[in-house]
Amino acid sequence: MNGIILTINGKQVKGKAGSTVLEICEANGINVPTLCHLKGLTDVGACRMCLVEIEKERRPVPACTYPARDGLVVQTSTEKLEKHRRLVLELLFTERNHLCAYCLASGDCELQILGYEYQIDSWRYPYSWPSFPLDSSDKHVMIDHNRCILCGRCVRICSEKVGVHTLDFGYRGWKDRISADLNQPLGEASSCIDCGACFQACPTGAIWAKSSAYRGRPDQCKKMRSVCALCGVGCEIDVLVKNNALIRIDSTELAGDRGVLCYKGRFDQLYESHQGINTPLLRDDSGKLKACSIGNALDEVGEKFGNIVARYGKNSIAGIASSKASNESLKAFKKFMTDIIGNDLIDTIDGDEYRTIIQGATKFRSGAGLNIETTLEEILKADCLLVVGVNPLESQQVAGSYIFRAASQGKANLIVLDVDKNPFGFHASTWLKPTKGKEELAINALTKAVIGKLSASNAVKAKENTTSLGAMNITQANKEAGIDVEDLNNAAAMLAKSKHSVVVYGKDILLRKNPKLITAILRLASKSGKQNPKKPRVISLKPRGNSRGAWNLGLANKKEFSLSGLTKNGVKAVYLLLADDYIDDTKIIDGLKGAKFVVVQASYSSPVTASANVVLPSPTWAERKGSYTSLDGITKSTPKLTQPQNNIKRDEDIIRGISKRIKISDRRS
Amino acid sequence: MAKVKVATFWLEGCAGCHMSFLDLDEAIIDIAKAVEFHRSPITDIKEIEQVDVGIVEGSVGSTEEEDVLKELREHCKILMAWGNCACFGGICGMRSTMDKEDALRRGYIETESTYQGKIPHPPGVPQLLDKVKALNHIVKVDCFVPGCPPAPEAITYALTELLAGRIPVIPIQMMRFD
After folding, report:
1. A134 touching B (Cβ < 8 Å)
2. Which ipTM score applies to this complex?
3. What is the pLDDT of residue A533?
């Protein structure tokens, strides 16, 4: 219907109206060289590599910014164009320092590839030999302006996809260079969130990551598609592996909607931050943990578990799993506890958060579960966003980027409701700041204000539910929760008139362990703008990488679960599956003190493994094949990226080993 | 058939290009049959005579190198640049990003192992140029073989083409900037 027909290089090709000439060339497999173009970003025509000749145009035009029209006659590769491109390349090469022999991007550089393609074996123009300073102030990324071709890909990805707009151009003409904030060193630029998108977007060696520098060129590494299991956003990643080590982590579709990564996913995972456990450990008679064979460790666990169940009954062993473990590990763990031990004394480390969400959702609508939540993509479509009690830039940075993106591109009004922080700064239209402990009051007041602002017909529908808000009113919220009335009214007006509002809440709200807060948030969302009253657009940022997966598998207990309470009431042994989680929670460590026998299965040495009787090794995320479920319910799998030391077995194999050895003969009912 | 007269020069470079030339394996036999070497670091002949092909490794960083290159240009029919230093300035070009005096001070005085260093200025010692230059920024160069060092295949290709009477352009798959 919207099709157009162009003639490119003498051939008729079809395209969609509204695309650029370059897009149509790409869609039809016609190669046009580019440098400043990165699919998904706004094209600016900076590098002039994609020049094409179009009939009736006075001079060559950049294909990336030229809107395609029906009937255009385009030439992409004439003698004149190739001469132009060669000239452009030579100018780029001589403008700054583009000597590949001492550049770490050599072998991974788009300028170099084009240099080869155009057989640039010498440069006709005098060199400028610039000596711009090197900016090494940032923890992860370095900027070498001398290698920069000013394509602006970093600038555009920073503003368009990450949403923070830290990078832009500074100075003029000859001295033009990439500058962070108001010409700050990158490490001191307060708006930078360290996500590293600029590094991946850079076509040359101008921006590079300290973590990957000089560790191997992409052609020397094995590239594997995986999924990051750190926070639950579920970013797909390409991992470069060399010599059994992770060299570099890239986003799979850099400029796509789910394209950006965070500093944790991109950089931190390349470093081992904790002491790893590479062998089973057994507490000997002197009370010290000593290395032993896996057979010995499993024998010990099987025997002790068997004896404890035989003596004290099946409800004498409790199991706790970390929601960082893979779905496969968690499934095996649950099966072990329910089928082999035969009880339901099982929970996840973030079980409290699960119960808060579920109880809150059930109170909002009976039968509602985790499925009531919306997906992360909805944030990008939002015209009004409410962020309650969470700093996504810390916990789920990529979700934070979505919010930045939605807010900074002027599409969405951003409202922050938080007692002590506004992570989005001036991007937030309003910051409602209730006193601590009065969040529920503030949320309900906002709900009431929203209903007051709805158009008459909607207000009637909404009225039925207002009774449940009690005598609460806006003045009360002002007095007790310290909410500014004007701010509240502004926020309510934005929510009321919105067509696609999304509410995001997280950590601080969940830590309150008050299901009423969740109910209040759901109710507020259901009254805001055009919503499905049964499934308002709300999403919770969950505590761990595979929380949703663990909760879906039923690992989190529906009833209250207190480790110290259980050990006081007959639980003699505790089995903890931590996988690659590092736990130093005093509540768990104190809870373990009451148990006679503690088995911890973990990748890293932690205060929890220090208090175990038997420590079983567990492969990390990179060392095993597995699947993880994102916080909005999408399950993705990852291959084994590196070989674990000592060929550590998978969690499920170790659990099977225990199951085989356990002998529960005179099981008490 | 008369042998082709070749002279090879080693200016500001590391000899890596000459090493790469010696690494031609069996191809060197055919080439040796067809050429006659004059001045070269390999023959140790010092005089510059009239030759057919002049081959230069290294960039131009001092007054002496500049003089030698100009003299060679007058004595050869075809001038070939070997390696990144000769084609682009290469590794030797690193010092061009700083001031000449700073580079000398760093090299002769400030290096950690130097005790009471001095910048040498006796008469007759060639002086550094302000900036390191690629050959084509001083004289006309007829063909270029980039690479650090150029791959032996690229050198073989270039020499074989020359012997066949053609000016070589290194094919894409043999192009190297590092």
Report:
1. no
2. 0.94
3. 87
User: Do A187 and A285 have their domain in common?
Assistant: no
In sequence order, what are the residues at sequence separation of 6 or more whose Cβ sits closer than 8 angstroms to the Cβ of residue B83?
A: B13, B16, B17, B20, B57, B58, B90, B145, B146, B147, B148, B149, B150
- Asked if residues A419 and A389 have their Cβ atoms less than 8 Å apart, the reply is yes
Q: What was the pLDDT predicted at B2?
A: 86
Q: Using CB atoms, pick whichever of B98, B134, B175 lies closest to residue A119.
A: B175
**Nearest in space to A142 (alpha carbons), one of A130, A154, A159, A151:** A154
Residue B1: pLDDT over 90: no
Q: What is the CATH number of the domain that holds A14?
A: 3.10.20.740
Predicted local distance difference test score (pLDDT) of residue A386: 96
B79 close contact with A: CB closer than 8 A: no
Per-residue confidence (pLDDT) for residue B122, from 0 to 100: 81
* Whether residues A379 and A346 fall in one domain: no
Domain contains A156: yes
Residue A299 shares a structural domain with residue A370: no
pLDDT at A467: 54
Say yes or no to pLDDT of A668 above 50: no
The whole-angstrom distance between B133's CA and the closest CA on chain A is 9
* Domain count within chain A: 4
Cis status, amide bond into B149, omega within 30 of 0: yes
Instruction: Quote the CA–CA distance of A294 and A277 in Å, as a whole number.
Output: 13
Q: Per the domain annotation, does B100 fall within a domain?
A: no
Q: Kindly report, residue by residue over A157-193, the tens digit of the pLDDT.
A: 999 999 999 999 999 988 999 999 999 999 999 999 9
Asked if B24 and B152 touch (Cβ cutoff 8 Å), the reply is: yes
Chain B hits for A101, CB-CB cut-off 8 Å, are: 84, 90-91, 148, 177-178
> Does the beta-carbon distance from B170 to A102 stay under 8 Å?
no
Do residue A301 and residue A371 come from a single domain? no
CATH code where residue B90 lies: 3.40.50.700
How many Å apart are CA A67 and CA B88, to the nearest integer?
Answer: 38
| DSSP secondary structure string for all residues of A634-646 | -EEEE---SPPGG
CB-closest option in B90, B98, B170 to A121: B170
**Partner-chain residue, chosen from B94, B131, B141, that has the shortest CB–CB distance to A122:** B141
**Domains in chain B, number:** 1
Is there a contact between B170 and A122 if contact means CB atoms under 8 Å apart?
Answer: no
Residue A500, pLDDT > 90, answer: yes
Q: Quickly state the pLDDT bin for A479 (edges 50, 70, 90).
A: confident
Q: Is B131 on the interface with A (CB under 8 A)?
A: yes
Quick one: A375 and A502 in the same domain?
yes
How large is the average pLDDT for residues A611-623? 95
User: Which of B 85-104 lie inside 8 A of A, CB atoms?
Assistant: 87-91, 93-94, 96-98
CATH number for the domain harbouring residue A287: 3.40.50.740
